[in-house]
Amino acid sequence: MRISRLLTPLAAAILVAGCATSDPYGGQTQRSSTGMGTGIGAAVGAAAGALSGSGSTSRRDRALIGAAVGAAAGAGIGVYMDRQEQELRQNLQGSRIEIDRRGDDIVLNMPSSVTFGFDSSDLTGDARSALNEVANVLKQYTDTRVNIAGFTDSTGDASYNQRLSERRAQSVGNYLSQNGVSSSRLNTMGYGANQPVASNDTDQGRAQNRRVEITLTPIGNGQG
């Protein structure tokens, strides 16, 4: 019997409720990270529960239990990251660091013009102040992995740009580590001029490409 046929209306309701929320301002339905986590968790839990049962009734019951448990786990991750995002947005107001939510991941975009001097990997005072706030939040949310990536524009020698991007990512990682974030949670890498977010044919585009991105990823069911 196909697993999808084992889901009763209760399990289906968990999936639907988990994936969509209502915008109280615009009245439109939108997907939230918590809802997505709930829906995915419910689906995975239902599948696992169905596969573990021997008879059709047992499989159906286990699918329901698995859906409920999986939904709770998925929602837990979403709520954990929601709280973390909210604190980061509050603490980084006015810092010129852009915060982007991508599913359960949180991406902090630090423009080079704010973070470093020209052709340098030394952090500016503004960057250190902002990273102090980031470190304070990360120390509260210990079930978050921190991936730090450096990027440059395409001007100049490619190998030099690669090394500069690596040094800049490392500078950010070192500063977070020095301010209490465990180094075991940190991963740094440089991409040089690869993965541009804008055209390198204009000054504005090149400025956008010179950046460090800090991607925060949940390790598991975090409790902040």
From TrEMBL:
Chain ranges of the OmpA-like domain: 103-220
Source organism superkingdom: Bacteria
Signal peptide: 1-22
UniProt-annotated location(s): Cell outer membrane
Keyword Manganese: no
Protein name: Outer membrane lipoprotein omp16
Lineage of source species: Bacteria, Pseudomonadati, Pseudomonadota, Gammaproteobacteria, Oceanospirillales
Principal cellular location given in the protein's record: membrane
UniProt-listed InterPro entries: Bact_OuterMem_StrucFunc, Gly-zipper, OMP_bac, OmpA-like, OmpA-like_sf
Gene Ontology CC: one annotated term: cell outer membrane
Pfam families membership: Gly-zipper_Omp, OmpA
Keyword Signal attached: yes
Keywords: Cell outer membrane, Lipoprotein, Membrane, Signal
